[in-house]
């Protein structure tokens, strides 16, 4: 049974940052000078904490930082400015190497680390065309003074650590990084990378299929059926317009975008359904399963903030958290936050050209250009995207406008009611979120937060929109106040799993998740007779049941009327309980059957390109219900024959479904082994609550993204907050807390992180007093 541990100890392993330039970094294998640096010696928790600066700091007043045994910090400061500064110190202390990599990635500076590789230069060119930092100056200028000061002091904390630390992280030597002061605009640029619009992933797949004679049907299916899951980056087809190197770089670009926020589960249960009689909340965000984790667990108490929660690395905010009054989490709304715009008819003078130098490691800088239209950057100039040569297509994105997520989430952390919480989120823009909420007074609710054009119902009829139509849509932008909100529903819970947040008079999005997770969450809550506890919610977060897989199996059995029962492998599938547990042979059998069955089904319908493993099993189920019995029987018999080989070679689901423990440097040829720390069987699948997305194959494969952090809070007790990371807090190689939460995560165990200062101090491993400079 999952349990909560207050101060568990040590060791295990995992993977590094967004899976970004896996291909690019592999080129470093030919650069011996970059790889002679050996890994740091094993570092104790005491040694790592001793490296944290405590004296002669630019503070107004002394600050206390309590660290627990997992190197989770809680900052107590007499001023907000000091709190922000110390949080910046904390992020730099724990994740400086990761932050520096993310900074260069968000700015299109990968060649600065990887060297003169043509497709890496194309990757940088494409990232710069996307322009994650385009709105940063306007965002900073429009920020309220208190938010701007918070951001500036957080940046000061990073810079102080970077300037004064004697020993830099291992990443600096391997990637050729240098000390370079941070600017607040760069923090905002990383925030925009984290706010990537997931619609872009689907667009790339659709753009590559536009020459199909039945593309109108494909577009109608994709844009008209928003309940289907988005195309996976791995499933994007080959484009004849791209070279093989560009295709590899495109795959990396899509991995980058995919890793920053594809999905999540979030649940708030009213006190009528809990053992404590107060609401409880459970969140598990789904991001790239890479190391270091994209989150930090932290806490702070200052004059205006008192919160524990999950902070995105390098960002001065709590995206998931708990205060004395409220708790919140969220899932990506998958809102229609962007449009592709045909700007070929605009007057020439309205399009400008940007020229920039791209620094290249071991080589001369190179110069590239991009164009910008009144609607936004011209994506067709990006060398990796599958546009036609005669097209001029721009990207209109809310992320290129001055929305203010830092102010929104800082003020949300100060809210005391659902109304206050929703009002605080008014300036929020990207990425669009369904925020799930609970408070001490007993309210549970959901707030949809973003900014989105009020499009008309015909919007899905085109992939690339006329400029005049987009101009009309974008003159009327809806904000959080115009979007769905739920408060105290009669069922006594709210849940979100990337499904539509509620009815709306204008389209909210096209590519919502398949219904598996939201239906499973809802069914488990509705049908539970016993009160919910932390342990019960922890079990829910690790649930591996697939409704769509079991429905597909049962529909086939009913349609084929016993024709499959003669085959011995079908007995194994028929007896499967629908759970993708790591030790399940039934899950392996179903997967070995499902992949060749779905492939043959699409081939029989003369639609081979419709088979896309990233779209989940509901689409295949629809095809089953549309096919005749003879076609189904032939596909099933073929699949059963094909399934025999993987079942003879492998024993259970975890033999092929693997969680590799490695940093990004583990992908470097020859020496990458020193950065790989393990390879584990794991449960879950594409559509289970324990999300572990993967290529649809019956061969061994690795989890690409999924559940990589968890949070549970009970509003009855301000100290009843429980968190765990897939990995650990520390990004320092060979640190005692680099991977110390991995075994806890795999077991469904969480770490208690108290909120009240006296409890924090009582349970601290070390407490530091930070003193101002004289």
UniProtKB/TrEMBL annotation:
SUPFAM superfamilies: N-terminal nucleophile aminohydrolases (Ntn hydrolases). Ca(2+) binds at residue 339. The keyword Signal applies. Keywords: Calcium, Hydrolase, Metal-binding, Signal, Zymogen. The keyword Metal-binding applies. GO terms for biological process: antibiotic biosynthetic process. It holds the Pfam family Penicil_amidase. It comes from the Bacteria. Binds 1 Ca(2+) ion per dimer. PANTHER family: ACYL-HOMOSERINE LACTONE ACYLASE PVDQ (PTHR34218:SF3), PEPTIDASE S45 PENICILLIN AMIDASE (PTHR34218). Belongs to the peptidase S45 family. This is Penicillin acylase family protein. It comes from Roseospira navarrensis. The lineage of its organism: Bacteria, Pseudomonadati, Pseudomonadota, Alphaproteobacteria, Rhodospirillales.
């Amino acid at each position: 049974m999952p349990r909560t541990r207050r101060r568990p100890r040590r060791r295990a392993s995992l993977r590094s940052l967004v899976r970004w330039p896996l291909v690019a970094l592999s080129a470093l294998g030919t650069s011996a000078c970059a790889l002679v640096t050996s890994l740091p010696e094993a570092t104790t928790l005491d040694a790592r904490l001793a490296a944290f600066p405590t004296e002669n700091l630019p503070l107004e007043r002394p600050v206390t930082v309590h660290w627990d045994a997992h190197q989770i910090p809680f900052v107590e400061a007499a001023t907000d400015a000091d709190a922000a500064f110390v949080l910046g110190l904390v992020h730099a202390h724990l994740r400086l190497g990761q932050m520096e990599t993310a900074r260069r990635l968000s700015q299109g500076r990968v060649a600065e680390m990887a060297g003169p590789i043509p497709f890496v230069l194309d990757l940088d060119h494409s990232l710069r065309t996307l322009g994650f930092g385009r709105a940063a100056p306007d965002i900073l200028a429009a920020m309220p003074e208190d938010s701007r000061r918070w951001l500036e002091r957080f940046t000061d904390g990073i810079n102080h650590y970077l300037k004064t630390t004697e020993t830099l992280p291992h990443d600096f030597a391997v990637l050729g990084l240098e000390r370079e002061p941070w600017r607040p605009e760069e923090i905002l640029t990383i925030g925009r990378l984290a706010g990537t619009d997931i619609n872009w992933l689907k667009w790339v797949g659709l753009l590559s299929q536009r020459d199909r004679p039945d593309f109108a049907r494909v577009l109608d299916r994709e844009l008209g059926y928003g309940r289907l899951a988005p195309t996976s980056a791995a499933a994007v087809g080959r484009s004849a317009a791209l070279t093989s190197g560009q295709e590899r770089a495109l795959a990396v670009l899509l991995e980058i975008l995919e890793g920053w926020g594809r999905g999540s589960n979030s649940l708030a249960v009213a006190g009528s359904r809990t053992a404590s009689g107060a609401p409880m909340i459970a969140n598990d965000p789904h991001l790239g399963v890479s190391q270091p984790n994209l989150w930090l667990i932290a806490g702070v108490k200052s004059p205006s903030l008192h919160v524990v929660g999950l902070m995105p690395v390098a960002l001065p905010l709590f995206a998931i958290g708990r205060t004395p009054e409220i708790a919140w989490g969220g899932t990506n709304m998958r809102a229609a936050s962007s449009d592709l715009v045909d700007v070929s008819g605009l007057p020439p003078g309205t399009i400008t050209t940007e020229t920039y130098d791209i620094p290249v490691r071991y080589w001369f800088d190179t110069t590239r250009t991009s164009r910008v239209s009144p609607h936004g950057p011209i994506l067709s100039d990006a060398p990796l995207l599958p546009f036609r040569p005669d097209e001029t297509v721009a990207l209109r994105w809310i992320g290129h406008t001055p929305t203010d997520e830092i102010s929104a989430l800082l003020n949300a952390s100060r809210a005391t009611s659902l109304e206050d919480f929703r009002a605080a989120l008014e300036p929020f823009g990207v990425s669009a979120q369904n925020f799930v909420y609970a408070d001490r007074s007993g309210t549970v609710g959901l707030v949809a937060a973003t900014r989105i054009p009020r499009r008309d119902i015909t919007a899905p009829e085109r992939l690339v929109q006329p400029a005049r139509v987009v101009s009309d849509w974008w003159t009327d932008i809806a904000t959080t106040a115009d979007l769905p909100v739920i408060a105290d529903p009669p069922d006594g819970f709210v849940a979100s799993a990337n499904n539509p947040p509620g009815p709306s008079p204008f389209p909210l999005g096209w590519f919502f998740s398949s219904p598996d997770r939201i239906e499973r969450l809802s069914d488990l809550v509705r049908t539970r007779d016993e009160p919910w506890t932390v342990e019960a919610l922890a079990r829910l977060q690790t649930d591996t049941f697939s409704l769509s897989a079991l429905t597909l199996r049962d529909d086939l059995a009913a349609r084929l009327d016993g024709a499959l029962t003669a085959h011995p492998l079908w007995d194994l599938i028929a007896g499967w309980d629908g759970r993708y547990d790591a030790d399940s042979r039934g899950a392996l059998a179903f997967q070995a059957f499902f992949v060749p069955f779905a492939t043959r089904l699409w081939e029989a319908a003369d639609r081979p390109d419709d088979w896309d493993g990233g779209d989940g099993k509901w689409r295949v189920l629809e095809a089953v219900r549309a096919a005749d019995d003879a076609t189904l029987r032939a596909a099933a018999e073929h699949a059963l024959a094909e399934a025999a080989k993987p079942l003879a070679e492998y024993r259970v689901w975890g033999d092929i479904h693997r969680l590799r423990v490695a940093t990004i440097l583990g992908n470097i040829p020859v020496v990458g082994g020193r950065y790989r720390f393990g390879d584990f069987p794991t449960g879950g699948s594409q559509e289970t609550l324990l999300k572990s997305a993967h290529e649809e194959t019956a061969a061994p494969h690795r989890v690409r993204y999924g559940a990589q952090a968890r949070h549970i809070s009970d509003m009855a007790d301000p100290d009843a907050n429980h968190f765990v990371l897939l990995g650990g807090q520390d990004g320092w190689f060979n640190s005692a807390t680099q991977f110390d939460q991995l075994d806890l995560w795999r077991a469904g165990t969480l770490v208690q992180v108290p909120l009240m200062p006296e409890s924090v101090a009582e349970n601290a491993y070390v407490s530091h007093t930070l003193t101002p400079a004289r």
